[in-house]
TrEMBL record:
Membrane association type: Multi-pass membrane protein
Protein's recorded name: G-protein coupled receptors family 1 profile domain-containing protein
Main location, first listed in the record: membrane
Transmembrane segments: 20-44, 51-75, 87-109, 130-151, 171-191, 230-249, 261-280
Molecular function per GO: G protein-coupled receptor activity
The organism's place on the tree of life at top rank: Eukaryota
Subcellular locations according to the entry: Cell membrane
Family from the record: Belongs to the G-protein coupled receptor 1 family.
One matching Pfam family: 7tm_1
G-protein coupled receptors family 1 profile domain ranges (all copies): 33-278
InterPro entries documented for this protein: GPCR_Rhodpsn, GPCR_Rhodpsn_7TM, GPR_3/6/12_orphan
């Protein structure tokens, strides 16, 4: 929704809509969910492997996306809309989506390296490399997100607008082209994961006569579950990111705004699904959360007698 869409006096705050309520609720859920994940990892000294650094980065990026949605709601329905608020929320959202997508690529790279270099990956050297990589990712995301505030906007030239105002068509095309490149690289990494997993499964199959029957069945069952989870992750990843990446390249300012929202909502919705697919399914993180929950329950039980 743009400032120009509000009828009458532009100084009036527009009335609250269903879309506004949904924006506020989803932003709050995304922020809360990812804050829990980030706090849990940071507060647990044992969670310092490269994968947890990547999950912290992913959680921070998605948390920032939730904050961007809340800010967008506040600037649209609680205070008088202005150009600077549009530039601020657009920049924060671009930064968060860029960092989130690059972090997802980093998670795929981590899974590939942990399979192909199982004996050496996870050392302190690998953690330092992951930290440097994430620092570069966030620096790049912040530079890209600063584009609207640095002049890559169409507030003064409506004809140069893209499907996502106030971003220019050139800026959004470059952004979506980069998104597609990251998506393709991530898919290639997952294809490599499948190849490595098949080689491991073949190596296990050739040694089946050395294993007990129950252990052989357990290995096969675990492998099947692994591929099912991989297919689920890939399906959600492509469904969330591919529509907006393609629409940003193909659409223009004359296209119906509904199409833009229909493709942008899944991209933002990935911030709600990522903690479930990548962090809360991790057994180490789940163990910490269960321990915290049990500790709180025991305190509630003992507090009356105290």
């Amino acid at each position: 929704m743009n400032v120009s869409d509000v009828g009458g006096d532009e100084s009036l705050v527009p009335p609250l809509t269903v879309w506004g309520v949904a924006m506020c609720v989803s932003g709050t859920l995304i922020t809360t969910e990812n804050a829990i994940v980030v706090t849990t990892i940071l507060a647990t000294p044992s969670l310092r492997a490269p994968v947890f650094l990547l999950l912290i980065s992913l959680g921070l990026a998605d948390l920032l996306a939730g904050v961007a949605l809340i800010l967008r709601f506040l600037f649209l329905f609680c205070v008088e809309p202005s150009d600077w608020s549009e530039l601020l929320t657009s920049g924060v959202l671009v930064t968060s989506l860029t960092a989130s997508l690059c972090s997802l690529m980093g998670v795929a790279l981590d899974r590939y390296l942990s399979l192909s270099h199982a004996l050496t990956y996870g050392s302190s050297r690998s953690r330092r490399r992951a930290a440097v990589l994430l620092l570069l990712v966030w620096l790049g995301a912040c530079v890209i997100g600063a584009g609207p505030a640095m002049g890559w906007h169409c507030l003064g030239e409506p004809n140069s607008c893209s499907v996502a105002r106030p971003l220019t068509r050139t800026y959004l095309s470059l952004l979506c082209g980069g998104f597609l490149l990251v998506v393709m690289v991530t898919l290639q990494l997952y294809a490599g994961i499948c190849r490595v997993a098949r080689r491991h499964a073949h190596a296990i199959a050739t040694q089946r006569h050395f294993l007990p029957a129950s252990q052989s069945y357990a290995s096969k069952h675990s492998s099947g579950r692994g591929f099912s989870r991989l297919i689920l992750v890939l399906s959600v990843f492509v469904a969330c990111w591919m529509p907006f990446s393609l629409w940003g390249l193909l659409g223009d300012a004359s296209s119906p705004p509904l199409y833009t929202w229909a493709t942008l909502v899944p991209a933002a919705g990935s911030s709600l699904l990522n903690p479930i697919l990548y962090s809360l399914r991790n057994k180490d993180i789940r163990k910490v959360l269960v321990q915290c929950s049990n500790l709180k329950s025991s305190k509630r039980v003992t507090s009356p007698s105290a």
